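Progress narrative, work stream C.
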Amino acid sequence: MWIVVARIILRNRAVFLTALGLITIFMAYQASKISISYEFAPLLPEHDTTFIEYQEFKKKFGEDVNILVIGVQDPDFFKLNKFNDWKKLGDSLANIPGVNGIVSIGHSYNILKNSQTKKFEIKPIFSDAISSQKELDSLAKVLYSLPFYNGMLYNDSTKTYLLALTINKDLLNSRDREQLIANIEKLTHQFEEKYDLHLRHSGLAYTRTLVTQKIRTELSLFVVLALLVSATILFLFFRSFKVIIFPILVVCIGVIWAVGSMVLFHYQITILTGLIPPLIIVIGIPNSVFLLNKYHQEYKNHGNKIKALQRVIHKIGNATFLTNLTTAAGFATFILTSSDILKEFGIIASLNIMGVFALSILLIPIFFSFTSAPTNRQTRHLENKIMRNIVKYLVHFTINSRTVIYSATALLLILGGIGISLMKNTGYILADVPKDDPIFLDLKFFEKNFNGVMPLEIVIDTKKKNGVYNLSTLKKIAKLQTELEKYPQLSTSFSIADAYKFLRQAYYSGKEKHYKLPSKQETGFIMKYISKDDSKNKLISSFIDSTKQIARISFKIADVGTDIMVELNENINKDINKIFPKDKFDVSLTGTSIVYFKGANYLIRNLFTSLILAIFVISLFMTWMFSSLRMTVISLIPNLIPLLLTAAIMGYFGIPIKPSTVLVFSIAFGISVDGSIHFLAKLRQELKVTDWDISKSVISAINETGVSMLYTSVILFFGFGIFVASSFGGTVALGMLVSITLFVATLSNLLLLPSLLLSLESSITKKSFKEPLLQILEEEEDIELEDLRF
């Protein structure tokens, strides 16, 4: 087949160049419309109970991720000029387009009892024109006499004060949010400079914006770094600018296709799909290395450029196709998971890996068919003394030191098993943000002073209309709130019970000692002072639904990690079940923090599933290729050991299992198995030439493929190494771990795999290669020279 493919490609160069040019122009146009996702990435499938409960919560009570908080720690906060400017700051922030509301001390309210009208009146605590320090001190005492605000807007023990903004949901999920954040920061910086204070910013609305900006910046950075690293390594190997230009052009076109395909599939750039363009470069360059090495080898053998290009396609094409197919299959297993973000990544990555293969097998021969034949200087890399000495040493070591290889492998297995036992499964919302980053430091500020900013909600369904107003229900809610105060990870909670305490305090002229739940008799008196239109009573309506059947208890929680969240989730549910009988109440724990921690665990399970699927699918491919289950098992061993070593490294160095690090295994396995395919393909060819002499065939296969495998190993090592330049810890770990895994896999494929084949030659090798289902290479077949002329 590949002889026909070679003939078609080389005879129709103009047609292919025109077609690829038109496709690239179309894809470039599509790529120009790419957008970055500003939405909270859904980690749970839509049918998941936790996801459904969270969606129901949002329908009844609105978003919990559109809050931006600003905090300041200042013992002199209630100085006249400073406080007035703080209040003005709040007014200015409230007037920014996209800000729907504001809550702060300067905009806090008191509830006053009007005995004449028998109504509660809601009045601002602080007037717009506070003219004296004495007046401000008096009003501050009023604020401190209202326990409702303690823990919500201030922490008196640390003299920390909070201002919260509610952001428009539609704006929050668009690029306009960046300008909104810029406008907010401009105003807060002015306040900072005037009073020499440090204002802290946090909340999911804020952190998501800054993280998204980092993703966009790093996407461009990684593409540039991947190109620079690849070009540099290619030049060091081949010592030719011509050799650099064409492979780089191929992967650049591949990047355009990748981004364009995202638009065609209606996907946006996320923290995962943002990795695809540099991945295409790093994975695509080795295709060119194998093709160019073979081209130079062939030309050096017989001096015919066209014949050399033809042989590149029909000898390397099939093996390269299969290696790309296995790599794509590794990524494609993500499609079979239930996670949308993984499906998107799997679809785009797998399709474009095959796309860059097609570009390589078409464009590399076509491009070089138009150039002059390789010079002696350009083919000199084939005699690279360093690489040849390394390969020579590998051959010597394989032939003479298999006991050492097996002993080292056994030691790695033992150390790997110990390391795996030390692995930890934990995940933080800001786990990938550096500990010295302002985003992380500001979050810790709010955790220290307000026990966090991540939303946590308890939803209580009384199963009957107006059931929330039942005094026994209010008491149960208050009891649960008291019970949950024992958890230091949780902030002060707020509920309809707190609203009733506030109303009772107001009923008794604002005296602080009356901040408690009313009795049944007092409830009747208090209700007479409340407007019958609950929609006007935001104090009450914000804690219950329109039917008064469902109530909420709102918390904030620290970013404590999935391990602690699992324990907290279990303990809180136990507390809930002790207070709210299941036959009378439906109570659920929800909010963004719950959705995230369950989503992170779900994603990790899916990633492990995809790894198992990748191993299974690639094993099927290799069984099909070599018509031998035994050979598949032997060839998988050198590619599974590097994964074990990587897992051990994570255990020894405390790198936790999380979505970004689990991704390492599927990516690395799909790529590392390529070396086995190239080696075994060449080995089978050599077995036919040497009349099934296994020793000669293994040595020849190492000599033939060793240099190319080492070249690609270096490119992949440094190519994935560019991710250590990321500001996200997960991306750094991904790059570092994949680089190490692939490097070890190369050594494993050049040492352990040949050793196994030599040791088991009589029972496996000859039988396994005797009648393959798929003809990997047919070195003897050739195209007549007249068939190669244009």
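Work stream C, second folded protein:
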Amino acid sequence: MQSKIKRANEVESAFANLGLELDEFVADDTIDRPVRGRSRPSWVVPLLLLLATLISMTWAGIAAWVPGHLLEIAFQRGSLLEVRRQVLANWQPGLLFSLSLAVILGAHELGHYFATRIYGIQSSLPIFIPFPIAPMGTCGAVILMDGMKANRRQIFDIGLAGPLAGLVFAIPIAAIGLMYGDPPQTQGHSVQFGQPILIQALAKSLQASTDSGEPNEIQQKILKTKSIGNDSMSPLLMAAWVGFLVTGINMVPMSQLDGGHVIFGLMGRRSGPFCWMIYLVCIGYVSYTSYMFGEPMFVLMLLLIPLMGIPHPPSSDDTISLGLPRQIIGSISLVIPVLCIPLRPMIFL
């Protein structure tokens, strides 16, 4: 086979020396040629997934963040009349929730994306993940990057850029949601959303900033019970709640989560044992909440994390130092999961 290939190359070289192309003397049907179709632009799939996720998140808002219950009612009655009623009643808050959450998640992923562009690391555009049966209508968004070509400092910057960019939008959206916005109409099925420390602090500060010092209904419920039902949750506040939860989970310092990038930047290869310790803490948290509340949240995530590897993989240069400013910012950022993840995120009644 190799001799045939060599002979064919010699023949083609001979024709080339004569200023001729071999293709001129070979009929198209006598040789196999790969057919190259037009390559699809890199933005097509991310755009389609973004549109699908917007529809999915809008549907979640229309269903007052319990889409499964709405579908169950339709199935029991054998009619889509209730679905139609919910769409007509809640399409505006549903759309507001969808667009607000897309801004938060999009800012998060674009933070990663622009950081990779700055450092010349190849990456994909943000890829949104629709999930219509989930309360939020999405599993978040991701970018895919060639992390093996990034050094320790670059991985730190890329990992932290996303959560910080997302919080820049999530915090003001939460503040507006605490002050304004009508909740969607519900179908009598209530879900309580436990509020993270960050939203509780915002509610308290907004109460103190008012002339009367009296909280509104949303702020009052949060300050009193540290949770709020879907029948009282404004669309903007719900979008911020999801944004905080996603940010908090991503900033857990292990594996290839954003927090894993940060702790690897801070500790380098010494971060391996620390990541294992955090993984065991997460197992304890999930076990505790499952036993105490009967709600085993985040179990699937605990099962998926080992597939990515619990310690962070090495970078192209693990020896490069971060410098004092990055070390301070990175160390402070490790508190984000505590501020953004409620002890009991969802309470099904």
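The radius of gyration is 26 Å. No further action is required on this item.
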